[in-house]
Amino acid sequence: MPNFLQCFPVPKALRDCVESQKDVLVVQPCLGEVLSPSNVHSRFSTLLWLEELNAERELREFTISGALLRKGGVYLHLEVLGLAEGRPNLNIGDRVLLKRLHNDDMAMEYVSYVAEINEEDVSLRVNSDFHHSYLGEPLDVEFTYNRLTMRRCHNALELTKHFGESK
């Protein structure tokens, strides 16, 4: 199926700068400039990427080590304390990584998707083979950031590039 929405990846230099907690103005000097038609696109793109990097960092704080999932008919159920207060902020369709460490220190990673959200419980859709083979052993759970909204914001910003230009 064709995908018409561009990816708009976070620039590596900006990601590296933020992760090493260096001055962002060195990598993106447009943030220190007075807002003008010539820098509005680069400035707001940068702000969107910074928001995304912050959201990723916040989600990493909710990684769960040694979680025990409950088997349901179709889903695996995960208790997530704080979910009722929106921490972490999860939506239907979000990807959740499940990791299992094997005896040889090799980690197996399984991808699941949020199917239902209740007060303190998330129902995860997983591969049927994994669902059937899961025996209640502890898993590490890593929530991932869904970039779709940010990609839409970047796309909207792209559409404004030519506003105000005479034809």
UniProtKB/TrEMBL annotation:
Domain Helicase MOV-10-like beta-barrel: 70-136
Location in or out of the cell: Cytoplasm
InterPro entries with a match to the protein in the record: MOV-10-like_beta-barrel (IPR049080)
Keyword Hydrolase: yes
Protein name: Helicase MOV-10-like beta-barrel domain-containing protein
UniProt xrefs under PANTHER family: CANCER/TESTIS ANTIGEN 55, CANCER_TESTIS ANTIGEN 55
Source organism superkingdom: Eukaryota
Any Pfam family the entry gives: MOV-10_beta-barrel
Key words of the record: ATP-binding, Cytoplasm, Helicase, Hydrolase, Nucleotide-binding
